[in-house]
Amino acid sequence: MDLTILWFGIVGFLFVGYFVLDGFDFGVGMSLPFLSKDDTDRRVLINTIGPVWDLNETWVIVAGASLFAAFPEWYATLFSGFYLPLLLILAALILRGVSFEYRHQRPEKAWKARFDRMIVVGSAVPAFLWGVAFANIVRGVPLDANHDYIGGFFGLLNPYALLGGLTTLLLFFTHGVVFVALKTDGEIRQRARRLATRSGIAAIAVAASFLVWTSLAYGTPTSVLLSGAAAVALVVAVLANRAGGEKLAFGLMAATIGLAVLSLFSALFPDVMPASNDPANSLTIANASSSEYTLTIMSWVALIFLPLILAYQGFTYWIFRKRVTRAHIPVDAAH
């Protein structure tokens, strides 16, 4: 197999892993105002992702590092041209991480409320901007002959990209609320199931619009097939949640997000950064990749370490598989 194609697939796989795993983290963070009635409820929600959120977040670091090493031209154009939205994503992720660690350091309600708001914002901003970024990559952006982005920040906020951002926002929100239903019990679990049904219906409408637009304007036979599979998985996930099948619903939400990301990568291939102003300026897997030697070394490293990372993450989820309830929250943490 051509190593450039292999590494395009590996980068796609890493972003699938990131959006599936950190996606439900974002959803749980955004759900705080909707599912909690008091501080104990908020502690329950945060504890559902407490053991895994930072592990989930490392996927974007690995994805970014792989992008830098395998496709340095793509990395340079993306991170320079999309500097402001990516900086906002980074700031939001830092804000969220700090909030998880600091909200319980003092007992005052105002202190905790301040960090709870930061968790919500720190979850919603990347959930929206990742969709905006990937929609722009698929749509194409103006590039000069040196493959530098020549559009401004507001050029990234076009209708198609904004719809992409709203799609990821609603998908991640629903994914997270389904995860809450899977990981909790009692009244919070029932509230999460009801909310997931409502947000799932909204996600179906918005995601369907985005996938149809993508398929008609930028689609390939493979991407259209993947988009259709994602749509079916989303509808069945909402129905499964409504019927009380949280495990099935969560698995199907993960499949929805994974298939949707794969459909975008499929629509993009063999380009990695299409030029909307002149196709001759586009970055492809051929002109954006590293040398054959570099890709060979990276392939051996991935072959050795990627299975170990997957095994470790699977073990972590198995260890922390039990539901979290209000009874698990210490009394002193609830005040």
From TrEMBL:
Keywords in alphabetical order: Cell membrane, Electron transport, Heme, Iron, Membrane, Metal-binding, Transmembrane, Transmembrane helix, Transport
Superkingdom classification of source: Bacteria
Subcellular location: Cell membrane
Cleaved signal peptide residues: none
Any Pfam family matching the protein: Cyt_bd_oxida_II
Membrane topology note: Multi-pass membrane protein
Keyword Repeat set for record: no
Annotated transmembrane regions: 6-32, 74-98, 119-140, 160-183, 195-218, 224-241, 248-269, 297-320
Protein name according to UniProt: Cytochrome d ubiquinol oxidase subunit II
Annotated source species: Herbiconiux gentiana
Gene (name only): cydB
